[in-house]
């Protein structure tokens, strides 16, 4: 694991300080035992050692020996504390999304180990790993391109889980499941199908009970307004997987909040948002919610910052301490009417989160668990720097 320039400089300074402390301790011990400071020269080394040993065994020096031993012990504790401070680990409160290339890409073991170390270094303790999408025939997809069935890819998934968990026992791994409410104009709406709910619940149980995932992330879309079928689905999954397995919900953002302006976009109908009551129902149904802070249609940085802040303030004021809230921030390209990658950046999202937290009292502010990074490729060093400087060190 590589160190940043600042970390390397800090560790170098720490090392010099420890050497100074050590040399001072040696001098003090020598003075106590022999009455004179230790010499740095190497002449007559064997004779000097013999004389020092004789001095140690002399009865008159036993008190000095005890004092010296106490100094050595205290110095050791001090040095250990300083070293531990230099490698202090951040709380693992944050998360990251991993796309299908991770679980189906047969990644090099060393590269995976390096990546896991990078996560821990940046306080990321959870990975939402893409596993499958529910197809038109209600079969779960698999493979690098999603063309195969999950049953054909199950071994690859099992290998990834084992490899990922072997790198650290500190990290959680959630199965990210993609579920479309509409597949096409022919298929139509399907989230009201109880058999579909059972299929999703059974697949979730397979992933957490047999394959070793720590939980499931249900990414149901599109979900632009209140929907009782969505609540029934979450409840069905909870019944089947049991209370000990975590359920996370990807939360669609409000596109037309009443108190935020938005440029006129004909494709967006007024009231494209969840009501406060529906938000609360989702919050109490899940162990954690992940606020999707992208595809906002915003084209000005300040508009986007205020839009993110609005969601932080709104959801945190509705939630209970039993539900974790993570804020998913964007780091991907793919420009569209909904997503302007020059506006919806990690840096701007962090500004929005900070503004939202500023609007909350201290008790409510603590209910935001952390950040979840959504990216379509591995983060560059510059990306990690933004995450560290604008979130971890905020």
Q: Your description of this structure?
A:
This protein has helices at 5-34, 45-57, 62-86, 100-104, 109-121, 150-167, 194-210, 228-241, 276-285, 301-318, 346-358, 362-365, 381-392; strands at 94-98, 124-133, 141-142, 148-149, 172-180, 215-221, 246-251, 288-292, 324-331, 368-375. By secondary structure, the chain is an alpha/beta fold. The protein folds into 2 domains: 5-86, no CATH class; 94-392, Glycosidases (TIM Barrel, Alpha-Beta Barrel). The strands form 2 sheets. The chain has an 8-stranded parallel barrel with strand order 1-2-5-6-7-8-9-10, surrounded by 6 helices. The protein has a two-stranded antiparallel sheet with strand order 3-4. Helix 10 (301-318) links the parallel strand 8 and strand 9 (324-331). The two termini are 23 Å apart. Residues 1-22, 36-63 and 77-87 have low confidence and may be disordered.
Provide the fold topology.
Layout: H1 5-34, H2 45-57, H3 62-86, E1 94-98, H4 100-104, H5 109-121, E2 124-133, E3 141-142, E4 148-149, H6 150-167, E5 172-180, H7 194-210, E6 215-221, H8 228-241, E7 246-251, H9 276-285, E8 288-292, H10 301-318, E9 324-331, H11 346-358, H12 362-365, E10 368-375, H13 381-392
Parallel strand pairs: 1-2, 1-10, 2-5, 5-6, 6-7, 7-8, 8-9, 9-10
Antiparallel strand pairs: 3-4
Helix pairs in contact: 1-3, 7-8, 10-11, 11-13
């Amino acid at each position: 694991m590589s160190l940043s320039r600042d970390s390397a400089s800090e560790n170098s300074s720490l090392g010099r300080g420890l050497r100074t402390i050590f040399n001072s301790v040696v001098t003090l011990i020598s003075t106590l035992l022999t009455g004179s400071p230790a010499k740095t020269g190497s002449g007559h080394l064997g004779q000097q050692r013999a004389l020092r040993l004789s001095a140690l065994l002399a009865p008159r020096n036993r008190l000095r020996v005890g004092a010296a031993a106490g100094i050595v012990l205290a110095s050791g504790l001090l040095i250990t504390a300083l070293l531990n401070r230099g490698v202090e680990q951040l709380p693992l409160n944050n998360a990251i999304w991993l796309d299908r290339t991770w679980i189906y890409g047969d990644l090099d073991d060393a590269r995976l180990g390096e990546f896991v170390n990078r996560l821990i270094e940046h306080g990321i303790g959870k990975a939402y790993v893409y596993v499958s999408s529910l197809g038109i025939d209600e079969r779960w997809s698999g493979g690098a391109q999603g063309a195969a069935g999950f049953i054909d890819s199950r071994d690859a998934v099992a290998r990834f889980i084992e490899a990922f968990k072997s790198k650290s026992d500190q990290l959680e791994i959630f199965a990210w499941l993609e579920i479309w409410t509409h597949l096409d104009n022919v298929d139509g709406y399907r989230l009201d199908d109880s058999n579909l709910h059972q299929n999703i619940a059974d697949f979730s149980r397979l992933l957490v009970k047999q394959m070793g995932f720590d939980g499931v992330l249900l990414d149901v879309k599109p979900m632009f307004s209140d929907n009782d079928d969505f609540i029934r689905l979450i409840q069905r999954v909870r019944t089947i997987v049991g209370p000990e397995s975590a359920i996370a919900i990807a939360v669609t953002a409000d596109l037309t909040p009443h108190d935020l302006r938005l440029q006129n976009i004909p494709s967006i109908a007024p009231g494209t948002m969840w009501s406060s009551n529906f938000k609360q129902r989702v919050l109490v149904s899940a162990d954690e919610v992940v606020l999707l802070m992208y595809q906002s249609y915003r084209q000005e940085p300040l508009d986007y910052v205020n839009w993110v802040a609005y969601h932080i303030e709104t959801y945190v004021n509705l939630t209970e301490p039993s539900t974790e809230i993570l804020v998913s921030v964007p780091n991907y390209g793919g420009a569209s009417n909904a997503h302007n990658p020059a506006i919806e950046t990690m840096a701007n999202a962090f500004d929005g989160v900070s503004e939202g937290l500023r609007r909350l009292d201290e008790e409510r502010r603590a209910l935001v668990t952390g950040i979840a990074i959504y990216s379509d490729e591995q983060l560059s060093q510059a990306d990690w720097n933004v995450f560290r400087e604008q979130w971890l060190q905020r």
